[in-house]
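Tutorial, part two.
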Amino acid sequence: MTPSLQPKEFLTEFILEQASKQPVEHRILLYRALSVELRDRALQMKCTALADDLEAIEARHQQLLLDFRAPRQSASAGLRTRRAG
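Running the prediction step on this input gives:
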């Protein structure tokens, strides 16, 4: 631990440095947990905003995946219907 940092500051810095190496779901949780523990209001808001952004990106990714799969699934259903008929 750096002598100039208090234990809480050291942990905060460590979390912020290591968060980017974590899967998105873990990063969201880390940023939200950190925002609750921080005393600096501006930093709290930045952590919360980053967690919100990551959640929005993840939701858009999931929607893109569903949109990509939808035409394929309806085409497969059409093939099954034609084969059955």
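The chain has one domain: 7-84. In part three we will examine how such features are distributed along the chain.
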